[in-house]
Amino acid sequence: MVQPLTKAIPHFGKITLQNLAYYAPNLALWGGASTFGLFIFTEGVPVFQDTFFKPIPVLGQHWIKNPDPQDLPQ
């Protein structure tokens, strides 16, 4: 009786290295888009402004409010 030659392929569940390499660009695109969307939807929340947006070197000045003294209520 002839035994077939089998080769063990490293895997995690049904995910192999070949599958991961095939889906990596798509997963990176969706991950980047979802992160961008998360930043868009949390832009108006003060906790996120103080934690994430204000410390950005150049763009952080957009979220710092410096109103004109004449515009403040007296």
UniProtKB/TrEMBL annotation:
Protein name, entry field: Cytochrome b-c1 complex subunit 10
GO BP annotation list: mitochondrial electron transport, ubiquinol to cytochrome c
Residues spanning the membrane: 20-41
Annotated Gene Ontology cellular component terms: mitochondrion
Annotated source species: Wickerhamomyces pijperi (Yeast)
Keyword Protein transport (UniProt): no
Keywords, sorted A to Z: Membrane, Transmembrane, Transmembrane helix
